[in-house]
What does this fold into?
Amino acid sequence: MRVHGTLKKWNDDRGFGFIEAPNNEKEIFVHISAFPRDGIRPRVGELVSFEMRVDPDGKMRAVAVQRAGATANTRKPRRAVAQKPKSVAIVPALIFLGLLCFVGYKIFLPLQSGDFASPLSATPRITPVQNPKFRCDGRQHCSEMTSREEAVFFIRNCPNTKMDGDNDGIPCENDSRF
It folds into this structure.
């Protein structure tokens, strides 16, 4: 049931006030959230109609406040705003994507081919030397070599050799044959 009254007190800083109704001896609390959101601030002396609710603490509160002469729906309908189509800069995006792919390719290619020497690797990268006399055939130990020259070729050019115990680049130092 709607009740009519007059806004007697209003604290704009705190957003609440009190309404005096002719049939109530007590003032009724009203919060700013009970007023319509029409951009008009409540004014002392303003005639209003409202519904009364009881708070959990037993006090009366005004809700669904309407100003005198206003209809039930005081909200202004929102106007539909035409959405602009978002323009996508397709050419710069494609250029950026192409550049990103190119850089990724340039970084990935050396990793795949083994041309990339990691600074963290303990063994230095050895460039294979073409020597028609010798070829890497899986031999790894000094006992499998026939000469010091062959051992030097293997240690410099072939992987997984086990002929340089102290890693000084001189193979088969303890082999008396050489």
Notes: The mean pLDDT is 79. Strands lie at 2-11, 16-20, 28-31, 47-54, 60-67. Residues 48 and 68 are 5 Å apart (CA to CA).
